[in-house]
Design a protein that fits this description.
alpha+beta, six-stranded antiparallel beta sheet, Beta-Lactamase, rod-shaped, 68% helix, 9% strand, 441 residues
Length: 441
């Protein structure tokens, strides 16, 4: 059976990235942005030395890059703190950019990255970053429009210098790279979610088909059991009973071969009473029988246990039958009443592992019904025999009362004993008493 995906897990994947994906994204972003940030700080250092002289901003950037490196290479720091630092770093950079360049710099792009990573790394909680970004932009715009934001003029001049362009380019690449990696991971996760949804749908469809098949098989099993029950409930002849049962089972479920053995009175041998097809007919004509304890059928009867053999060639005591060359799997179910074994229902298939649990349950149910009908047939036969004997005895008693001499009594007794004992010849002898013989001499 196909293992089903937990629908709860799929739903969780569609709402935000799973923790494994977020950690992988975090590690990738940390490494990439650390390299770019380090290069950007180096380029900016040259700009500070030669043009701007804004050592305080350079010190802040260098400190952030140093802390950035710690969070990049120290993976034992909890995920929450690493994610919080990265989000905070993008926000700090955007605030510094707005404080120095107003809305003319890259602050808006950094705020976009800030929003993206807040949502990606913290889920729905990160949506508060949207409100924070709007407030920052509104404050910056208000201050800049009223000339209350003292812009750093040297920073504006860096855009026309070579080192400034290198620094700005690296910062821009960092922004684009961070946004691109987040988008790639999101798209990848969406594709994985779609794939999981398809797999789940496929698995559910297979499960539905399997359940439909199980329902169909169980319905057929119930119908077959009911049909067998209807056909055999009124039967009294064991041979006819066995043949109807095996034919019904073979026709309904298309088994390779079905047969029923019944135990003899001595309890030592199992005789075939019903078999399907030409093979069954030939074995019935030959009086086929199996000693108790031999083969799969004999073992089932001897142990009073169901024996299911998925591969008959791996069963040491299997008795191959030349009339059934395609047998590959076999199941033998004792037909029992209590601890008394009446016979064995034996079914064979031409494929390895040809019997499911549903097959086993159905065949056990049929075997139980056959046992009940066999017991009823025996009780009916015994009752008939007792009735016949009582009728003969009653008739004999009546005739005996009408006899007029000893010869008629003896003749009547011999004839009636022959009928009761079902023999063709019966004789009654009277032994003379020894005292009478002595008196004659």
């Amino acid at each position: 059976m196909t293992q089903l995906t937990n629908p709860t897990q799929t739903t969780q994947t569609t709402t935000h990235l799973p923790i494994q994906t977020r950690e992988k994204l975090l590690n990738t972003v940390y490494l990439g942005t650390f390299i770019l940030a380090a290069l950007a700080v180096l380029a900016y250092s040259y700009t500070v030395i030669t043009i701007t002289g804004t050592w305080s901003i350079l010190t802040l950037y260098a400190t952030l890059v140093f802390i950035h490196g710690i969070f990049t290479f120290k993976h034992d720091i909890p995920y929450k703190w690493r994610a919080l630092f990265l989000v905070s770093l993008t926000f700090i950079v955007s605030v510094v950019d707005m404080a120095t360049l107003g809305l003319a710099g890259d602050a808006r792009l950094w705020l976009i990255v800030f929003i993206i990573y807040s949502i990606v790394l913290f889920g729905r909680t990160g949506t508060i970053s949207v409100i924070i970004s709007i407030i920052c932009l509104a404050i910056t715009g208000y201050l800049q429009s009223h000339n209350n934001l003292p812009l750093v003029q040297p920073e504006l001049e860096t855009y026309v210098s070579a080192s400034g362009w290198i620094s700005v380019t690296l910062y821009s690449v960092a922004i684009y790279l961070m946004a691109l990696m987040a988008i790639i991971h999101i798209l990848r996760d969406i594709n994985q979610s779609i794939t999981q949804e398809k797999e789940l749908t496929h698995a559910l469809e297979q499960e539905r088909r399997r359940l439909d098949q199980n329902v169909s098989e169980r319905t057929r099993a119930i119908q077959a059991t009911a049909a067998v029950s209807r056909h055999i409930s009124t039967l009294r002849d064991t041979t006819q009973l066995a043949q109807i049962v095996v034919n019904e089972i073979q026709t309904t479920f298309n088994y390779y071969y079905v047969q029923i053995y019944l135990m003899d009175e001595a309890g030592k041998t199992l005789h075939l009473f019903g078999g399907t097809g030409e093979a069954g007919q030939k074995m019935l004509e030959k009086g086929h029988h199996i000693p108790l304890g031999q083969g799969i059928v004999g073992h089932a009867a001897a142990t009073n246990q169901l024996i299911s053999v998925p591969n008959v060639y791996k069963f040491e005591d299997w008795l191959p039958n030349p009339l059934l060359p395609s047998t590959r799997s076999e199941i033998a179910i004792p037909i029992t009443i209590g601890q008394e074994v009446l016979g064995v229902l034996d079914v064979q298939q031409n494929i390895i592992g040809g019997f499911s649990q549903e097959d086993t349950n159905m065949l056990q149910s049929i075997a139980s019904q056959v046992a009940i009908v066999l017991r009823n047939a025996r009780l009916y036969s015994q009752a008939q025999e007792r009735a016949r004997q009582e009728a003969i005895l009653t008739n004999f008693r009546q005739k005996l009362q009408q006899a007029t001499n000893i010869e008629q009594v003896l003749e009547l007794t011999a004839r009636e004993l022959g009928q009761v004992l079902a023999t063709t010849h019966a004789r009654v002898e009277l032994k003379r008493p020894q005292s009478s013989a002595a008196n004659r001499t």
